[in-house]
Amino acid sequence: MSAALTIRPCPDPAVWDEAIWSLPRGNVFASWMWGAYKGRIGWDVTRLVVRDASEAPVALIQYQVKRRGFVRFVLLQGCPLLTEKGEKHADAVVALFLEHLALGRLDLVAVSFEHFQSDAILLALLGHGFVPAQSAKYFTLELDLTGGTEPLLQAMDQRWRKALRKAERNPDLTTRFLTDLDERLAAFDAFWEMYGALQAQKGFRDSLNGPLFRDLVARDPHHRILEVREKGERVLIRIAHVSGRRFTDFYTASNDRARACAAPTLAVWRFVEQAHAEGRRTFDFGGIDPANNRGVFEFKHGLSKTPALSGPRWIYGRTPRLRDAAAAFLSYR
Questions:
Q1: Vertex 331 angle, CA 283 and 122, to 5°
Q2: CA 244 to each of CA 52, 157, 188, 271, 298: distance values in angstroms, whole numbers, following the listed order
Q3: Spans of all domains in the chain
Q4: Rounded CA separation 79/83 (Å)
Q5: What does the mean pLDDT of the chain come to?
Q6: pLDDT tier at 1 (50, 70, 90 boundaries)?
Q7: Which DSSP letter does residue 86 get?
Q8: N or C: which end of the chain has fewer CB within 10 A?
């Protein structure tokens, strides 16, 4: 089957993004923008289009590579994505991709779908010896938006409803989704300053490189940036990314005034309203960590009681013991 398929790089950002966002499972992590960001922070990024004998695309694959001496670590996020024609070629797509990689005995591949997998591609990974690595950090909370926002208002915890009412009745508190590039850049600068202060205060670390992400996220039409002000002063910035059906809370930062005026509650609810207005079916809280960050979990849990998995991560290597050890490490770290 793989002999009927060809695999070639795609060097054109416009062509790549048009193809990605035309698919039902098109997502930020498979987009050119995300690949550009990962390239800035040290990954070698390649984008491939798999085509059938008629030259019709059947799959899109963006993969990232880091090298340590003679060893390669290959990472795929939000893909492989199959086209409608590609569903029947899933097994051949995976075979051709592994052939393209020409892995060494110590090389490893990890696939992180971030909710955007299809049944066909999962079965293909299993058929080629990929193993799942599951971890508590791959859980999130979701809201079903298909019934509108009123049922969500009725179902939220009383403390959540009370905080939301307090914020909505506060004439000094305003929210605005930013579309102007200069405003989005300024808001991200404010976010990064507040985020740094939060990291210093709470002692947590994060892999986000704000200065290298700044212009990419500000220019990207699939990211939403919400600004909350109290008496004209910024108190909170919240960032989300969107796909066809999903609206995902991504990053947030605030100052000391935000909690006092219930700005986080108002910001999340504005996200929920915006997601429903855009026709998204699911609001994703972007992750939970009940064991190590109980306060944030309790805040999110006040609005949603529905856990969901973004994982597992799928691991492959030519050496089974190394593959299994890597999967075990990712499951428990």
A1: 60
A2: 25, 29, 24, 16, 28
A3: 2-134+311-332, 139-309
A4: 11
A5: 95
A6: very low
A7: G
A8: C
pLDDT of residue 75: 98
Q: What is the dihedral of CA 117, 119, 124, 127, to 10 degrees?
A: 120
Contact 89, 1 (CB under 8 A): yes
Residues 6+ apart with CB under 8 A from 178: 184, 187, 225, 226, 227
Look at the alpha carbons of 12, 15, 18, 23 in this order and tell me if their dihedral is positive or negative. negative
pLDDT digits (tens, 9 = 90+) for 263-312: 999 999 999 999 999 999 999 999 999 998 999 999 999 999 999 998 89
For residue 227, the SS3 value is strand
Q: Residue range 55-82: average pLDDT? A: 96
Burial class (CB within 10 angstroms; exposed 0-12, middle 13-18, buried 19+) of 106: middle
Q: In this structure, what token pair is assigned to residue 267?
A: 């910001």
User: Which 3 state secondary structure label does DSSP give 7?
Assistant: strand
What's the topology of domain 2-134+311-332? Aminopeptidase (3.40.630)
- The position carrying tokens 């790549």 is 16
Do the first three CATH levels of 2-134+311-332 and 139-309 match, i.e. the same topology?
Answer: yes
pTM over 0.85: yes
Residue 65 near residue 46, CB atoms below 8 Å: yes
Whether the predicted pLDDT of 107 surpasses 80: yes
Kindly state the tokens that stand for 31. 């987009």
Cα distance between residue 12 and residue 275, in whole Å: 30
Provide the phi-psi class of 259: left if phi over 0, else alpha when psi is between -120 and 50, else beta: alpha
Predicted confidence (pLDDT) per residue in 131-173, tens digit:
999 988 899 999 999 999 999 999 999 999 999 999 999 999 9
Query: CA 281 to CA 1: how far, in whole Å?
Result: 36
